[in-house]
Amino acid sequence: MKRYALLPLVLGALLTAGCANKPVEEPLAVEDVASVRYETSSLSNKFEIDNVQRALAGNVLRAQVTLRNKSSFTVSYQYKFRWYDANGFEIQQQGEPWRPQVVAGKGETRLQGLAPNPAAARFEVWLRAE
Amino acid sequence: MRVVMTILLSSALLIGGCSQVQYGDSTAAETLTVDFGSTDLQMIANQMVDDLLAFPPVVQMTMQRRPVVFVDQVQNRTTEHIDTENVTDSIRTKLIQSGKFRFVDMNVVERVRQQFDFQSQSGMVDPATAVAMGRQIGAEYMLYGALTSITKRSGNTRDVYYKFTLNLMNLETGIMEWASEKEIRKTKSRSLFGK
């Protein structure tokens, strides 16, 4: 009987410890937040930016943006990457198509892009509703 | 009679007023039918180029020099009439624009030969300015691939699956250095009412 009385206490202690150890999420850098742009403003309420990663493939810029669908409903949207050189000029304005994509409710999606050439220094990923 | 003429004129003006030309966004997603369309072409070209340029051995290969490539025709193994050269043209253009590869074009060889003949044999071109023969650079790599499709129909629903495969072969060794696939699935349901 005494053993069963202790069980809720132990479980409670474990749960509390679990909560205390939850890592504190670092806020995204201003540059990362600015790299996700919405052509349809209502989409900005549906998505949350989880992570923005940049890397070099040789000397060409690569980008990956992880987005989370905050809503419980499936969201159909289109996205395209836009690349800018060091002076802010857009590279190949008509270069990329709008790519249709679907993300499930509460789902996560990763958008990947590779710059058209080594001149790219910065990117933006644009989202719009279908 | 005048009334009839007026009605005819008004209707002619109305019909004429209906036609309107508008420019649209060439990069917008096109979902008119499930057939192979402009968005499929653009997505395939983009995906292939991104894959090729990000593939680590290719990154290493193109760091110091720009290899010379030629594009073989992409086989159309679908039931549709698709201009596959259009897809390879887009891929080639993007690869040239990346500054990582150079290309030789086998489609213009005959016209180049005519120009060579004109420069060397017509007697109209100053021999000092005529281009030298036999100095063209041979391709090191060949890009080739295929486009296939699977179509299924059930009641009012039509489902099409496209797969585009592209390979890069080293012409000297015969080794396939890189390969990539892009899959596209499109479904169209016809409802009883509406479109």
From TrEMBL, chain A:
Secretion signal, residue range per the UniProt entry: 1-22
Coiled-coil boundaries: none
Annotated keywords: Signal
Protein's UniProt keywords contain Signal: yes
Residue stretches spanning the membrane: none
Highest taxon in the source lineage: Bacteria
Keyword Signal tagged: yes
InterPro entries in the record: DUF1425, YcfL-like_sf
Official protein name in the record: YcfL family protein
Naturally occurring in which organism (per UniProt): Isoalcanivorax beigongshangi
Automatic annotation (TrEMBL), chain B:
InterPro entries referenced in this protein's UniProt entry, alphabetically: LpoB
Keyword flag rRNA-binding: no
Regions crossing the membrane: none
Keywords: Signal
Cross-referenced PROSITE patterns: PROKAR_LIPOPROTEIN (PS51257)
Alphabetized Gene3D superfamilies for the sequence: ABC-type transport auxiliary lipoprotein component (3.40.50.10610)
Pfam families recorded: LpoB
Signal peptide: 1-23
The protein's name: Penicillin-binding protein activator LpoB
Organism: Isoalcanivorax beigongshangi
Encoding gene per record: lpoB
